[in-house]
Q: What sequence folds into this?
């Protein structure tokens, strides 16, 4: 599908137009078109062939012609012309938090900064102090932003790693002699960031597998090519390691290459106490093979429960596994619905019915459509009059749609003082209210803490969305007292969200475990803006499992009748 390519090209155009100081409505048109095409449920090539491009919101005659050119040639002449005006490195500056188009323009024109590396050198050389309007606090924020971007580029997000790994696994699965194939490492443990990808395979013809692996089109550079293991680098610079192991040792190899390092060290110590040794080839007593065909067999031989990959971090799981007291981690089948999403009523792409039907196909029995509140103009927040019309649409849909219930909700902005964007008279009409901070990220920790606590104390707020405000690789979490907020949430029975959007995954695993210990319920939601984004729930579920959450810890595992009672 070329949806992502079209979206990427349109976003690049919008960025260049911003740096040039172009008309803001024109810029917004490209940004909106990028979002709509990226989230469109159909393949853009197929839509173009059928002459239906202008059915996509925000796509008129001019943009549809540009999409046709991209679909046909894989590039756009208009973008190439724009790029000749501004070096690509200047565009790269926009990935630095606090560096907007105007700042990038000043940095380039006055200091000839055309890359992030050049920006770092300019900061170290104290060159930014000479620029008008660049105060010490501004420069320090840019320095932190550069460090954040450079750090994030050392690793991929979980979402990016899964996308890369699935291409390799899908291709390798087709080989005739591949019996089993699993990814290991931090990807299998579902860490929020991943450095490289490990693939383990059982095959009777390892050399053929290695040859095929190194010949894949995704393998731009071959780093090593042996009989049972090989390593390549993708065009994006991602290292992918592949090894073939014996069937007899597959379980042991999977444990070993899944990690974590500390978990494996603890296992080795446990084996030594039993006068045995454990490695990637199995569990042995002397030279005698004891176990290792499967992970389950290996753990059983060590006298412990199976340990789910997500919690293999040596944070108490081995001790509990030896006692048979590990929790049963929440699974997708436990989830009954999704309580945070947006429709075309605000800044979403899909209709409420499209969101509901997609949710039903995932086995959900309810959803909450929580479009933005009136104050968030940039997201087309809903006025009271629009809310009445939306409520009527939901009521009509619930009368005719079977198998899934749509709850009338809103994502309501929490202002600088902790007040909600709608008055109580409106808030009480919603079936579910999701409170969220969308501004004032740099306020003092005490003020943000008070905002969140005040929102929890509002009797109409059920969930606090993306509680720390972070965007992985581009915005750090804002500073606040998490323990104080957890105490307030526990006291007021307010749930905190794991936002499953791939660049959020907020709350993270550590905060999930803190919430569990504090007795605070969690709601795992997607914050979807299109029907096909509901599958992003996998990323929130990964954080929940890494945070040791069980079904009872999660609000949206409740059946509909119990959920409605809980919300009251």
A:
């Amino acid at each position: 599908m070329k949806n992502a390519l079209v979206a990427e090209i349109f976003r690049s155009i919008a960025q260049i137009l911003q740096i040039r100081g172009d008309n803001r409505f024109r810029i917004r048109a490209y940004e909106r078109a990028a979002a709509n095409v990226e989230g469109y449920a159909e393949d853009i090539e197929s839509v173009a062939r059928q002459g239906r491009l202008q059915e996509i919101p925000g796509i008129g005659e001019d943009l549809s012609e540009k999409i046709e050119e991209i679909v046909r040639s894989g590039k756009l002449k208009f973008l190439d012309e724009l790029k000749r005006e501004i070096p690509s490195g200047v565009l790269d500056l926009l990935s630095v938090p606090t560096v907007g188009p105007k700042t990038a323009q000043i940095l380039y024109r006055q200091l000839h900064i055309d890359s992030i590396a050049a920006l770092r050198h300019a900061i170290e050389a104290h060159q930014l102090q000479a620029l008008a309007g660049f105060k010490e606090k501004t420069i320090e924020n840019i320095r932190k932003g550069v460090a954040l971007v450079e750090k994030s580029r050392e690793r991929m997000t979980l979402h990016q790693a899964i996308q890369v790994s699935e291409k390799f696994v899908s291709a390798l699965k087709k080989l005739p002699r591949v019996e089993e194939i699993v990814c290991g490492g931090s990807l299998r443990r579902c860490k929020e960031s991943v450095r490289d990808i490990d693939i383990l395979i059982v095959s009777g013809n390892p050399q053929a597998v290695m040859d095929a692996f190194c010949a894949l089109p995704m393998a731009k550079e071959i780093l090593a090519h042996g009989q049972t293991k090989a390593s390549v680098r993708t065009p994006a610079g991602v290292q992918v390691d592949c090894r073939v192991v014996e069937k007899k040792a597959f379980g042991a190899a999977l444990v070993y290459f899944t990690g974590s390092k500390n978990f494996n060290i603890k296992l080795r110590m446990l084996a030594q106490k039993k006068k045995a040794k454990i490695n990637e080839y199995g569990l042995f007593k002397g030279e005698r093979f004891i176990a290792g065909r499967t992970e389950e067999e290996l753990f059983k031989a060590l006298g412990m429960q199976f340990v789910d990959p997500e919690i293999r971090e040596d944070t108490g799981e081995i001790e509990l596994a030896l006692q048979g007291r590990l929790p049963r981690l929440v699974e997708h089948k436990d989830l009954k619905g999704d309580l945070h999403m947006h429709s075309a009523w605000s800044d979403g792409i899909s209709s409420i019915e499209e969101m509901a039907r997609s949710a039903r196909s995932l086995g959900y029995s309810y959803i909450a459509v929580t479009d933005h509140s009136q104050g968030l103009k940039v997201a087309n927040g809903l006025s009271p009059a629009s809310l009445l019309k939306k409520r009527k649409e939901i009521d009509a849909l619930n009368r005719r749609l079977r198998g899934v219930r749509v709850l009338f909700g809103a994502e309501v902005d929490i202002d600088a003082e902790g007040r909600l964007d709608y008055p109580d008279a409106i808030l009480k009409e919603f079936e579910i209210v999701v409170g969220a901070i969308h501004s004032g990220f740099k306020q003092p920790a005490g003020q943000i803490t008070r905002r969140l606590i005040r929102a929890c104390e509002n009797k109409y707020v059920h969930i606090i969305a993306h509680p720390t405000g972070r965007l992985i690789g581009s915005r750090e979490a804002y500073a606040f007292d998490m323990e104080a907020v957890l105490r307030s949430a526990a006291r007021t029975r307010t749930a905190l969200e794991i936002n499953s959007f791939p660049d959020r995954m907020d709350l993270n695993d550590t905060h999930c475990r803190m919430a569990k210990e504090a007795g605070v319920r969690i709601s795992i939601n997607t914050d979807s803006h299109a029907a096909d984004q509901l599958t992003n729930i996998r990323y929130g579920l990964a954080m929940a499992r890494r945070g040791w959450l069980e079904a009872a810890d999660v609000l949206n595992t409740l059946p509909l009748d119990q959920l409605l009672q809980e919300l009251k």
In short: The mean pLDDT is 93.
